[in-house]
């Protein structure tokens, strides 16, 4: 049995414990409230909003106007982009066009009376040597009688000339691009000193490493005594 002193001690301890819990509870609640930031004010952006959208319960009568403005901006951007793309395409195509100097050299006119019979004269055309050979009757006869079956790049003489007395070829060896020497070689036509390719008086490969005949460019004789190449 507890005496009066013991009962008083127990009652005092209970009061102290109750008081401590209450004090602790107040502290916890106060800390929780501060951590939730309930004492902070929310910024008011009403000054930056349109009057028509401040009230969320009000019908927005200007939505169609804003849509129309958005469509207008998108359309204007599309038109501007199309014009910019057009300018870029025109600039790109223009950069690929031939310059005035190239167009001026696209064709060359040659006065044939300046080339004596039996001689080969070299001209510059489109940055490449151009051989114009005034062939003799003997050269024409010899080249016409060559069997095409004996040629590496079979091509008859009359397929390579428009007028029999005039041979027009580009002076670039078909092996590695060297410039052959005229009136030289085993067949008296052209000889490439780089690797020993021999061409006849029709510009056809007859000996050496070159795989093809000398190229015949597009040419014509618009008037007597005038040759136009290109």
From TrEMBL:
GO terms for cellular component: mitochondrial inner membrane. Its EC number is 7.1.1.8. GO terms for molecular function: 2 iron, 2 sulfur cluster binding; metal ion binding; oxidoreductase activity; quinol-cytochrome-c reductase activity. Its cofactor is [2Fe-2S] cluster. It is a single-pass membrane protein. It catalyses: a quinol + 2 Fe(III)-[cytochrome c](out) = a quinone + 2 Fe(II)-[cytochrome c](out) + 2 H(+)(out). Coiled coil: none annotated. Pfam families: Rieske (PF00355), UCR_TM (PF02921). Keywords: 2Fe-2S, Disulfide bond, Electron transport, Iron, Iron-sulfur, Membrane, Metal-binding, Mitochondrion, Oxidoreductase, Respiratory chain, Transmembrane, Transmembrane helix, Transport. InterPro entries: bc1_Rieske_TM_sf, Rieske_2Fe-2S, Rieske_2Fe-2S_sf, Rieske_Fe-S_prot, Rieske_Fe-S_prot_C, Rieske_TM, Ubiquinol_cyt_c_Rdtase_Fe-S-su. It is found in: Membrane; Mitochondrion inner membrane. It comes from the Eukaryota. The Rieske protein is a high potential 2Fe-2S protein. PANTHER family: CYTOCHROME B-C1 COMPLEX SUBUNIT RIESKE, MITOCHONDRIAL (PTHR10134). NCBIfam families: Rieske_proteo. This is Cytochrome b-c1 complex subunit Rieske, mitochondrial.
């Amino acid at each position: 049995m507890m005496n009066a002193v013991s009962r008083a001690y127990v009652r005092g301890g209970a009061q102290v414990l109750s008081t401590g819990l209450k004090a602790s509870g107040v502290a916890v609640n106060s800390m929780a409230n501060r951590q939730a930031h309930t004492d902070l004010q929310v910024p008011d952006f009403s000054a930056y909003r349109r009057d028509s959208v401040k009230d969320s319960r009000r019908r927005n009568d200007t939505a169609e106007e804003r849509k129309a403005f958005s469509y207008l901006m998108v359309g204007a951007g599309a038109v501007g982009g199309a014009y910019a793309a057009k300018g870029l395409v025109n600039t790109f195509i223009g950069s690929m066009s031939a310059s005035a100097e190239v167009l001026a050299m696209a064709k060359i006119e040659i006065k044939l009376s300046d080339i004596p019979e039996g001689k080969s004269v070299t001209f510059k055309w489109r940055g490449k040597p151009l051989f114009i050979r005034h062939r003799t009757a003997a050269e024409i006869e010899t080249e016409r009688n060559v069997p095409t079956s004996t040629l590496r790049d079979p091509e008859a003489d009359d397929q390579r000339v428009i007028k029999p007395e005039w041979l027009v070829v580009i002076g670039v060896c078909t092996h590695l691009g060297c410039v052959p020497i005229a009136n030289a070689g085993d067949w008296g036509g052209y000889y490439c000193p780089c690797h020993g390719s021999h061409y006849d008086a029709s510009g056809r490969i007859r000996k050496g490493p070159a795989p093809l005949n000398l190229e015949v460019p597009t040419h014509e004789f618009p008037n007597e005594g005038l040759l136009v190449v290109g």
